[in-house]
Design brief:
α1 runs antiparallel to α2, α5 (about 100-155) packs antiparallel against α6 and α7 (about 180-195) packs antiparallel against α8 (about 200-225). The two termini are about 30 Å apart. By secondary structure, the chain is mainly α. The protein has two domains: about 5-130; about 155-225. The chain contains eight helices and no strands.
Amino acid sequence: MQNKPNIGSLLRVAILFVLFSAAAFLIPLRRGSMFWCEYLFTAAAFAVWAGAALLAQRDAGTLKERLYSVPTVTIAVIYTVLQAAAFFLFCLLPVLHVRIAAVISCCLLGAALIGILTADHNSHAALRDEAADQDSYRFLKQQQINVEMLAARETDPAIRSALQKLAEDLRCSAPRSAGALAAMENEIAGRIAGLSSVPDKAAEIHEISLLLTERNKAAVMLKGT
């Protein structure tokens, strides 16, 4: 879900930029090419900070989503602090040529943009994986309930015991959603749904258990990649 921009965070960035500009112009610095070059890079840093704040707020509707977006803004804040420090350092101690200072500031900007985009991508990927795992957990829980209901209605003690073991295996299965598991999960659900009508329930339960074991092995391998 798309969220409205948080004006408060943008206002804080704007206020800090005004304070920085006031300090830059009130401190008696030599306003030559070094000053204006680094001032523009620092203004760009504040703009990057504001953009990162908007990027982090794009889908941050819940507390968990906001926590996942913290690295994106943190990288922007660190970059802005470093660039502001570089501005005052280069202007107060003009020992570097303006071109070298510009190259350093360009490197900071590039590193910050790469870090921000990578952090944003990773946070959204983590949220997608977690949501998919929740869907897988609900699937396994529903199949466990279905098997437990079958066990409660079963009159044969051996079949009931096998169903109870299958329900326990479902409870202990790792929640992991992936396209590679969809076919096996659909087959498991279909076999459980038709379990009450098969002539040889013991053999069918055994086949479901084998299929579930195969699914769990595949889930562990996918989680390790």
